[in-house]
## 1
Amino acid sequence: THGRVTPVSSEELARHNTREDAWMAIRGKVYNVTRYMDFHPGGVDELMRGVGRDATKLFDEVHAWVNYQQLLIKCYIGPLRTVVKMDS
Ligand code: HEM
């Protein structure tokens, strides 16, 4: 999947919420963190709290300074596609 960028909906993101298939959105970008899991200095359980969803807040609460873009450069999937509701 190297070099391919695919927009991801929040529904699609939510389907990848397991230890073996873990996606995570940070600041509008979706990453496949499955392979990073074992290397996370904060441990697997902590990282798992953020999978399948937008983990920006969790991430920033713990370590807003961490350069995740660089660490996860090979794990990037694509932008989180946000749906704008026109009604209500
Ligand atoms: C620690 C990276 C997501 C919780 C760390 C550290 C790095 C890191 C580099 C070591 C920081 C240091 O030098 O002290 C990442 C990356 C993430 C991510 C790249 C995104 C994929 C998360 C999430 C949580 C989390 C979602 C959920 C709460 C923690 C905790 C520590 C930690 C608790 C230990 C802090 C400490 O003991 O000082 N992470 N992290 N991380 N991370 Fe993450």
## 2
Amino acid sequence: MKALVTGGAGFIGSHLVDHLVRQGIDVVVVDDLSMGDVENIKNRDLVTIYIEDVRNERFMQQLLQQENFDYIYFLAAVASVADSIERPGETHAINHNAVLSTLEFIRAAKLPIKQFLFTSSAAVYGNLPELPKREDSRVDPLSPYAIDKYATERYVLAYGKLYDLPTVCVRFFNVYGPGQNPSSPYSGVLSILTSCLEDNKPFTLYGDGSQTRDFIYVEDVIQALWLITTKQANHQVFNIANGHELSLNSIIEIYEKVAGHQLDVQMAAGREGEVKHSVANIGKLINLGYSTHWSLKKGLGQYWKGA
Ligand code: UD1
């Protein structure tokens, strides 16, 4: 079996690559290292890594033609909402066009893939009040990032149905764990919290901390992705989350206990346009055989040990 992971040197991608290698799958990574780092991949000696941009159509087509992939995991993306607002054209080319042209090549060349998995985001739900979010809940994509994710999902599913391709989409909620880069203000809050607790730096809390999120440990994300692949769960969308809603204040409290010391919290105004509450219904994933292995306490404990 052979798999392509675009964005395979990134935070979630590198964990997926390590898992696929452990399953005995031949893995090829395409990553431009704009966010990722080859060092994130533990078994990199066993992996073929191309430092390339997924917008390079010629490169992508040659690779697809020559490699005969069974599984394609499309994780390459500009993952920041703020970036997509600052440079919507460029992020659209990566987050939408590159996915579509890959799919289009698979269709036109009739490549016999077993699964094409596209990674979307909880951002598609926007700020609508109904909670928990089900995959068939109303969407309200508010940023270029969310619009690209939603539009691409629709294409991926339409290609699946119209051209009988084995495609599937997942919507990530808040993913955390080792390998997440804390260097930007738009990095995942748990990577920032980890680095603040570790180095005794002040943490800026945007808003009053009552905002809620659904955090899932990266190992559980990989479990979910692998389940979707092995069950051949195609032509659907799956929320990838823990299914538990926690306020940022309670997350800070739990993490302080795990770390054994207090965090220096500095209050700031809430971020413009942010989602106030977010939590997923993960019934579809559970029906597929998924169960959460990592509570927030356990995940934070593991993350902290490795920090
Ligand atoms: C996350 C995703 C985003 C996705 C969105 C969908 C990450 C990194 N981002 O954004 O790609 O579109 O879900 O709903 O996973 N915070 C602080 N201080 C900080 C950093 C963050 O108080 O230094 C707060 C934020 O204001 C927010 C919460 O922590 O209220 C979570 O922030 P973040 O980890 O950036 O994730 P989302 O905003 O939920």
